[in-house]
Amino acid sequence: MTRSAFAEAPLPIFDADEAAVAPSVPGGRPPSYLKDHRARLRERFLSGGAAAMPDYELLELVLFRAIPRRDVKPLARALIDRFGDFNAVLSAPPDRLAETEGVGPAVVCELKVVEAAAHRLSRSRVLRRQVVSSWQALIDYCHATMAHRETEQFRVLYLDRKNVLIADEEQGRGTVDHVPVYPREVVKRALELNASALILVHNHPSGDPTPSEADIAMTEQIRRAAEALSITLHDHLVIGRARELSFRAEGLL
Description:
With about 250 residues, this protein is an alpha+beta fold. Helix content is about 45%, strand content about 15%. It has 2 domains: about 30-120; about 130-245, Cytidine Deaminase, domain 2, CATH 3.40.140. Helix 1 crosses helix 2 (about 55-65) and helix 2 (about 55-65) packs across helix 6 (about 105-125). The N and C termini lie far apart (about 60 Å).
């Protein structure tokens, strides 16, 4: 296969106003300084990894494919300034991303593809594995998928008799500070999956994982419903921006 097959090429869905247009050169090619800048960023990433780059430069690498012939540094900085960090940009809802000047469908799609890939990779490290031996990977997965959400999400992790994770399912989405949860539905689904144990997980968009009285009451309702059917509730994790809280570790379960 020829080298040109891997070269950046514009796609027809890109909007002309997705980023500041760099001065063009004859033939429609991007200017040499832009090409050199991209080459340097790629070289730094390949030699030093993501740790060697600030968030806005890592975001530039993601945007290169969506905006092949324009300077994406101003857009990368604008997104970081608006949402806070690289992870928050990837996790932002499409409609919020589109509010940023210079972001069109191609940029949104590129960001969401990277987010989905990160979630799938994290999930592969915990699904069908014993929770005890992969606990940190489980925590990392929960943070990757939930820590930067702007509304509450409630998930249930279903385990078999050997504490192997057999299913990870969303049970509800809510507002910035509330998500409806139905204990009967949680336990019903456990029976359908032949699960022997559960781990509850939900996020706090505020960033503070301290459980509310409603969180504590809901957890107790699910524990009782599960216990009546010989299903064990191992833990309830509350995911904040930078840390998580375990009901089990805090003596709440």
